Amino acid sequence: MTDPAEKLVVLAAVIGAHGITGEVRLKLFTDDLARYPSLVAGGRTFTLKSVRPGPNGAVARFAEVADRNAAEALRGTQFAVPRASLPDLGDDEYYHADLIGEACHSTTGEALGRVIDVMDYGAGDLIEIERPDGRRFLVPVKAGVEDLGPPIRVHQEFVEA
Q: Which residues, 6 or more positions from 152, have their beta carbon under 8 angstroms from its beta carbon?
């Protein structure tokens, strides 16, 4: 398996061009994109010159994007950084990207499947687990939840529902 520190984590996606000078509109998956001066997209490195709040996310300027045509060509592009460049976490914190692909077991040791997605709808995270037969189910990530069926543990106690 790939070293988790070498894994790329997506922090933003281009949703369109902004203006005529090469700025792009971004959907953000981080609170502070400015802390990452260089991002990877499509095997290329992009240098972040500026980022500010904008319609539906943020507006950013990259040194490598000179005009609107170049900005439009990036629509749908995802910008990522190596997992190792993300800030350290405190106790009981995790990055969604760290859970993807992890094996899930019940508290009795029964293999349940693998994490395929982590969703955040505001009230708390939901983990989507795929069973070996392809069926999927969701588990809320919230301590102390009762009456949801068997307790779930993901990769050494990441999640206990």
A: 104, 105, 106, 107, 112, 127, 129, 139, 159, 160, 161
Q: Residue with structure tokens 């050494």?
A: 156
Condensed to tens digits (0 to 9), the pLDDT of residues 61-116 reads 999 999 999 999 999 999 999 989 998 888 777 788 888 889 988 888 888 899 99
Please give the Cα distance from 140 to 128 (Å, whole number): 9
Q: What value, to the nearest 5°, has the Cα angle with vertex 138 and ends 136 and 142?
A: 155
Of the candidates 31, 54, 26, 55, the residue with the CA atom closest to the CA atom of residue 41: 26
pTM equals 0.71
Dist. CA 51–CA 32, nearest whole Å: 9
Distance in angstroms (rounded) separating the CA atoms of residues 125 and 140 = 6
Question: What SS3 state is found at 35?
Answer: helix
Kindly state the tokens that stand for 138: 């969701």
Q: Read off the pLDDT of residues 139-158 as tens digits, 9 standing for 90 and up.
A: 887 654 444 444 444 443 34
C-alpha closest to that of 161 among 100, 101, 112 = 112
